[in-house]
Each structure stands twice: as structure tokens, then as C-alpha cells.
Amino acid sequence: MDLSSTFRFRSQSLTTQIPISPIKSPFKHHQLHFSTKFNTKPKSTTSLIVSAKKKAPIEGVSDELNAIASYNLDFAYTRRRVRDAFAEVQLQLDHCLFKTAPDGIRTEEWYERNSRGLEIFCKSWIPESGVPIKASVCFCHGYGDTCTFFFEGIARRIAASGYGVYAMDYPGFGLSEGLHGYIPNFDDLVDDVIEHYTRVKFRPEVRGLPHFILGQSMGGAVTLKAHLKERNNWDGVMLVAPMCKIADEVLPPDAVMKGLALLSKVIPKAKLFPNQDLAELAFREPSKRKLAVYNVICYDDQPRLKTGMELIRATKEIESQVQEVCAPLLIMHGAEDKVTDPLVSQFLYEKASSNDKTLKIYEGGYHCILEGETDDRIFAVHDDIISWLDARVKK
């Protein structure tokens, strides 16, 4: 009997801070590639081994850098070394976010140990001296991603418009501590985000100002969960291609789900949620898609079992609570997104109880509308974010 089934996220209807030297910084596509296929005939018993897939060599870099890029990224200290080695290479990439990033932005990078004892990587982008700060914007990145690659250019553009921009890598992602790509409990991850961004609100440069939160892809789910846990803590919520609903008809059969749930308790860290590479579906522009490999610390292996189950659980909880979303709301989605379905955003827009809500669907847009479209489209999306913010800080 063939149990093959695929699903994607869609719908039909106080703490020590450890400063580190600032780097202008780098970025990869936001990988919510979460399709899965189940087979009753595994190729071999070795399929249960937890191991990283072998990465293809990166064109245009030295053998030494390729050797560094192939390191096992399970632990943060390795990811930090790899990121440092590629910092200069990333800055030279032929992408509008790197080439036209505004000058004069003040950046800071640091690590802080949170209440769960995990060392979290944090970064800020502040307007150049003399430019008044209008509000803070706190960013939640997508699955597998980091806040030190493409978001560097996005953050600089928002900061240049008068906003203090703040970001962090979740535990297990980017430069933060934790097993790479592992989410043992989605609510703990959300609590980590709330804890850090609550601290941000009291930073001297933004204390007393409006505070907004921006989430992309899986970061949209993080953002929504953070809002739903503390509904009056944000002056506005912005979502880009959010992961917030899975249609029942595209979930695996109940029997398979029960098997996955059991396996996730026995071997939670195993990379056994098979997935297809959706890079071609995430980036509309081929030239920008080719740059994804330079985000060398992203998690692009098969999802770990517990991670997969936690993403499913989180989206089900969000789906049951969308009518409780009440903050001023901006939802942005590419009309041709095949990673997270724009109908999900329509569903959220219709069900949210927010009095102030805006839905923007970009004709022909793919999943990564912040970085994977034509230059003009990318800048238009960024301008839409800034215009939405400007209209609300003036109220």
C-alpha cells in the first residue's frame, strides 16, 4: 500500500550581554520548504541515522572556504566560525540588498544568555546620528534561516527611514546556541522571542516609542504566537508570507501522523521528515536564487522529527485563534507563492478581529518577496512596509 502524501503550508477556503565586534553583515532564502513524502519501503535501515547531507561545492570560492562551508553545523561555535569566514564574500554578492544598502547605519552585535541558559545572538540597526528614531521594529526570521544574511540589507533600508531595527537568531538557528534546526518546543521558542524583545523595548534609544513586530514565513507563526500570548504589547504586527494554517486535506493520514508523533518522542532529533528543495519556488529571480548557497549557516537539511511535529502543532493552534488577532495588522504575500499559500493570508485577514488591517497580494510574487524578486519589486515591498509604519507612528 502506498502511503505517499505531501503537504505544504496552505489553505483552500536579566542577563549578561557579551558584545562582539560589529560586522557590516550578510544572508538565504527563508526555508519553509516543508513538504514530506512517506514510503512503506525505506531504502535501508540506515535511513534512521541522524546525519547532515553532503553539501555541493560553492562556485567561485576557494577550496579552503568550501572546506569550511562543509563543516558540521550542529553546534553554534562551528556556525559562528563559518559565518566569520564568509563575511567578506557575502558582502561582495551581486544583489541589490548588498550593493545599495544605505550608509551611516549604526549596527551592534552581541550575545546574551536568556532565562533558559541559552546564548542568543542579537543584532540592531539604528539610523545614522542626528536622525530621530520613530519606533522599533523587531524581526522574526523564517525556518532554517538567520538574521545575518539577506535581512541585513532589509534592516538597513528600514533603519534609514528612521526606525530602530532589532533581530535575533532563535535557539538552534543562525549563531545562537542549540542543536541546528531543532525545535523541541515551539512555545519555548516563542517565549525566547518575547523575552528578548521585551528587553529591547527598554533600550534607551527606543524606550517610550511605538514597537512593531515583523515576521516572515515561519517567523510569521512566531510573531502571531507572540502577539496572542501578549496581545497588548505591540503597536502593530507585520507578516510576510506567514505560516499560520495547514489545510486538513494536505496533511498526512491520521495513521501516519500517529507514527510520526511516536517516532518524534523516541528519536526527536532524527532528520526524518523528507522534504523537497523549494529554492526554485521561493525565489522568482534565478540570479538571486543562485546566491542562496552563500547563506552558509542556514539549516537546509531534512527537518528533524520533533521540529516537524512542533510546526504542525503551532499552526493548528494559530488556526484556532486567528479571530483573536487584534493588533493593527499588515499581511503581505506573493500571489504565486507555492511554499506558503496566499489563501492562508486571505483567511487570516478575513478572520482577524483587528480594526486596522491591510492585505497586500503581489501579482506574480513568489515566497521570498523581501529578497527574491526583481530589484524594483523588492524595493516596492520594502517601501510598502515603511509607508505602513509611517502612517501608524503619525497617528
From TrEMBL:
<feature type="domain" description="Serine aminopeptidase S33">
    <location>
        <begin position="133"/>
        <end position="374"/>
    </location>
</feature>
<dbReference type="InterPro" id="IPR051044">
    <property type="entry name" value="MAG_DAG_Lipase"/>
</dbReference>
<dbReference type="InterPro" id="IPR022742">
    <property type="entry name" value="Hydrolase_4"/>
</dbReference>
<dbReference type="InterPro" id="IPR029058">
    <property type="entry name" value="AB_hydrolase_fold"/>
</dbReference>
<dbReference type="InterPro" id="IPR000073">
    <property type="entry name" value="AB_hydrolase_1"/>
</dbReference>
<dbReference type="Pfam" id="PF12146">
    <property type="entry name" value="Hydrolase_4"/>
</dbReference>
<protein>
    <recommendedName>
        <fullName>Serine aminopeptidase S33 domain-containing protein</fullName>
    </recommendedName>
</protein>
